[in-house]
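FORM 7B - TANDEM STRUCTURE REPORT

SECTION 1: FIRST PROTEIN
SEQUENCE AND TOKENS:
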Amino acid sequence: MSEPELIELRDLAPARRAGPGRTRLERANAVRISPGTARHPARQPVLGRGHRFQPAGPSTHTWCDLCGDFIWGVVRKGLQCAHCKFTCHYRCRALVCLDCCGPRDLGWEPALERDTNVDEPVQWETPDLSQAEIEQKIKEYNGQINSNLFMSLNKDGSYTGFIKVQLKLVRPVSVPASKKPPTLQDARRGPGRSTAVRRRTSFYLPKDAVKHLHVLSRTRAREVIEALLRKFLVVDDPRKFALFERAERHGQVYLRKLSDDEQPLRLRLLAGPNEKALSFVLKENDSGEVNWDAFSMPELHNFLRILQREEEEHLRQILQKYSCCRQKIQEALHACPLG
């Protein structure tokens, strides 16, 4: 069975032309980082300006925006900029070269979203449709759209169509520093399976980035995320991101995170083409939930080892504080005159 076809219909916010007949993505404040840079003082990069890093909250389970590794730990969760939300390991702080962009206004209509209940279910259901019902739904859908982004029914009973995804990313993304495009073998291996990227270029995506994808009815939400990352050559872990459905009802905006196995095109067909009834948004996966089943056995064993070291260090610090306090009390007792 062939993989779902993914077709790019609109470029991401074309920037200034780099040359005759060529366009490229705008990489604001783009920098290159290398793990070995610190060994050569003459080549040390200039640290990023404007960041105000603070310890990340206890519910922060995410991937480092600098090195791309998962931020392990319970007590030391990493650091996060209070302005641009750049998140990194404690050890990576000294290597952050990307300037802080300040708080990002992504046009989220705060008046509408102020009372949003993310966990509230949407109005429409997702029933199992018969083949005749699917065919009728597709005819109704195609009759309501004002463009050529039609849905079509296939001989095997599946159907194809287009979904529009808005990229509302607050934190930066990383692409390979090399301009060499990925090979066909790299694309088949998928994100996270290719050779580790040693040099990365970080930049902030434009706030109005939009992408249309041509997908099958059986295309899952996780495959949509991976396809978007491949389009932009993003090397960040796909688990760093999540696909949300957005709906406007009664003057409020409701967001719901899609599970990995949900089928966006099926939701699009059931909701119809009205984007107020349903639209798709790619955001950071900052809900605090971690799908531990998605990690490999070596990663989980490594997590346990790090937890043990962190626990031992935390206990040592607690014992040291109590010992210091006990010593001061004993010194005060000895200093007091008897009687």
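SECTION 2: SECOND PROTEIN
SEQUENCE AND TOKENS:
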Amino acid sequence: MRARENFVTGRILAYISSSVACTSTNCLCSCSAHHTYIAIIFTMSAPEAPRLRLGSKAPNFKATTTKGEIDFHEYIGDGWVILFSHPDDFTPVCTTELGAFAKLEDEFTKRNVKLIGLSANSLQSHEEWIKDIDEVAGSSLSFPIIADADRQISYLYDMLDYQDVTNRDGKGLPLTIRSVFIIDPKKTIRLILTYPASTGRNTQEVLRVIDSLQATDKYKVATPINWTPGEDVVVAASVSNADADKLFPGYRAVKPYLRLTSLPAEKVLPQ
């Protein structure tokens, strides 16, 4: 008997194969050859992965990384973390992405943000690939990369590719897509981004979102389209006009529901 787990459907199949002599008088091949019969013994649904949404608590896990064994919640500590997956080691787009994240790591660190990568590769593969990343990008990658060859964490965070049939490993199992999770000090998921394997991410956008989340947590504001630190922000809808007069003197009411106020960059960016 053999058993296999199908990561595409999330179902576990067990089956046996047997070879028996042909005795049918209606056999089209008119022979006594042995034919193979496949008997499906059972089909059992695997447990569903948690449905992760904004506001969900980030599931904890233990993992092997290029920086040793970690407990994810302990790794987050009292700061922020960006957990991001890449499809495969020694691939062109992933190499450019991790190099770019490595070169921006100091900026994330200033914002009390840790980085941690993941893919369905072995620890040895990661360690060898990091040499290529640093050579290509001129970086010095120091954040951990999770070795998730058994795909347990990828499944837990719903990172596996269900769309691209070419995004598979040598055994035909799906690789990860380009997922990004921003998680705050309370272990709450604050942002989820998902890119296909064919599209590289924008590291400046991930950094911009961190600035936005931290600013909106500190001040009663929201950030408008294409906002960057130093530009006007939106007074939160939950703030009454009377309170806005006190909190944001001189704010501009473009519409009753659209009130703008200044927020200097030095109040947002780490000093």
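SECTION 3: OBSERVATIONS ON SECOND PROTEIN
Confidence is low (pLDDT under 50) at residues 1-46.
The two ends are 63 Å apart (CA to CA).

SECTION 4: SIGNATURE
Preparer initials: ____
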